[in-house]
Amino acid sequence: MKPEHHSRKDDAHEHNNLEQNGQPNQAKVTLSPDADRKYFPPMENASASTGVWLLIAVVTMLFFLFSVAYRIRMTLNDWQPLGEPWQLSISTAMLVMSCVAMHLSCRKAALLPSIHACRALLNLAVFFTLGFVGAQLWAWQHLLALNYSVGGNPANSFFYLLTGLHGLHVLGGLVALAIAVYHAVRRRSDSLYPSLNLCTRYWHFLLFVWLFLLGLLRFT
């Protein structure tokens, strides 16, 4: 009985030394979080969020200035209104579905921070976004086939300028999304939800800008 009692005292003494030295107790280490504990997704980086808001502000001012120039230029006598190609309706539908897919993927990442859980939705978002760009190129090809060149009329020039500038920002969003997915694949799952949240915010902004440009071109 004495050796057993002495062994228990040694074990307790070793346990206390581990706690005093700041080392974790092996009995407390778990491979998964508590099942009864509510999951809270990681908060987004404050500097990254501020950077996205600054980018949105700069892009907003850019399109605002071009819109003012558009309104001023259309009052001159050489302005000939350009009929919008029907492919713009396809572009709008593609961008709306892309935003919906991004929003759903962000919500799923908030519940389960795994790239595998939202891979299908991300693939849909990329597919619809590329479809938007393809529909834009189709619209340009349609106008060029009708001999509406860039330098043929100021209205033509503004159409190509505004839609092309918006398309470049859409492609830039795809690059940011690819970087976010790359970090998630590299087993940094905690960065998935904050990155998708920022990308979703930017996607919604691009949809708002596109609807504004569509109204500007159609009703003027």
Helix content bin: over 70%
Order of helices and strands: HHHHHH
Instruction: Quote the beta fraction.
Output: under 5%
Give the mean pLDDT: 81
The computed structural class is mainly alpha
Would you identify the regions where 5 or more consecutive residues have pLDDT less than 50?
1-9, 11-20, 22-39
Backbone CA Rg: 27 Å
Number of strands: 0
- Describe the main β-sheet briefly: none
Distance between the termini: 97 Å
Shape: elongated
Number of separate helices: 6
Briefly summarize what is shown.
The chain is mostly helical and 220 residues long. The protein has helices spanning 2-20, 46-73, 87-111, 119-145, 154-185, 192-218.
What does this structure look like?
The longest helix has 32 residues. This protein is mainly α. It is built from six helices and no strands. The chain is elongated, with a radius of gyration of 27 Å. The N and C termini lie far apart (97 Å).
How is this fold's topology laid out?
Blueprint: H1 2-20, H2 46-73, H3 87-111, H4 119-145, H5 154-185, H6 192-218
Helix pairs in contact: 2-5, 2-6, 3-4, 3-6, 4-5, 5-6
Descriptive tags:
220 residues, mainly alpha, disordered N terminus
